[in-house]
Amino acid sequence: MKKIALITGSKGGIGSAISAKLVAEGYRIIATYFTGNYECALEWFEEQGFTEEQVRLFELDVTNTGECAERLALLLEEEGTIDVVVNNAGITRDGVFKKMSADAWFDVINTNLNSVFNVTQPLFAAMCEKGGGRVINISSVNGIKGQFGQTNYSAAKAGMIGFTKALAYEGARAGVTANVVAPGYTGTPMVEQMKTEVLDSIRSTIPMQRLATPEEIAESVWFLASDAGAYITGETLSVNGGLYMN
Ligand code: CAA
């Protein structure tokens, strides 16, 4: 039987690559899309050439705790199981802290960090009962090292790492692993929207002197999801071209 992976933010740059990789490896994907964005999600589904057996589009506002609890409980009943959760949904609202609005703070914390609670909690107990599962959280190099103009984003991404280590203890006995993939700067719309001069100056500090490809991030997610990753838990796997070495 196909393993089932739920991926949030699945039609973004990294989310698309993770979806494509896991489909290629024989997984069924539950691809969540933001409330009201069905047309956009369908366009992505068609562009990627997925079938309905491979990918199910699933409307979910990851910032809404009640909706996640309700809809994910239903999803579990319908699908029977969720083997892998990839918390990948994320946004940026960059700006220097002195000028940061409360909205820019809370939007990022809600979408990037509170979503991890909202999405993982309704699925984690079932994984433990079944005796296996994978929680994979997509953090960032900037959650590890901090970044000028990203107090909100760095806080959320660092929070994901603490969450993951704590959850790893709770899942370990049941064979449920929890890990982080921490990408560096990756060739996605999120990074490409940065000012050219800012991105150029960051690129020049990356030892490999280039951005990651989304596919390079997806390979690490697949590794942690696969049987090869069964004994790895509470770990943060950096994929950053040497930008920051722990
Ligand atoms: N360190 C120290 N000082 C810095 C600095 C840095 N890295 N960057 C800028 N400054 C200084 C500037 O020199 C400037 O100083 P003066 O006022 O004395 O001239 C001051 O800080 C203001 O800088 P900006 O002109 O850049 O301010 P701004 O308001 O126009 O822009 C910003 C602020 C949008 C946050 C911009 O600095 C920026 O884009 N920073 C990079 C943020 C970033 O890396 N985002 C990543 C997005 S992608 C992502 O997040 C994915 C992932 O996981 C990696």
User: Bound compounds, please?
Assistant: acetoacetyl-coenzyme A
How far is it from the N-terminal to the C-terminal residue, by CA? 38 Å
Give a quick account of the main beta sheet: strands, pairing sense, barrel closure: 7 strands, parallel
What is the approximate shape? globular
Instruction: Give the count of structural domains.
Output: 1
Number of helices: 9
CATH class division: Alpha Beta
Low-confidence stretches: none
What is the share of helical residues? 40-55%
Beta percentage is 15-25%
Instruction: Say how many strands there are.
Output: 7
Give the strand order, joined by hyphens, for the main sheet: 3-2-1-4-5-6-7
Reported by name, the CATH topology is Rossmann fold
Rg over CA atoms, rounded to whole Å, is: 17 Å
CATH H-level superfamily title: NAD(P)-binding Rossmann-like Domain
EC number: 1.1.1.36
Keywords: Oxidoreductase
GO biological process, one term: poly-hydroxybutyrate biosynthetic process
Protein name: Acetoacetyl-CoA reductase
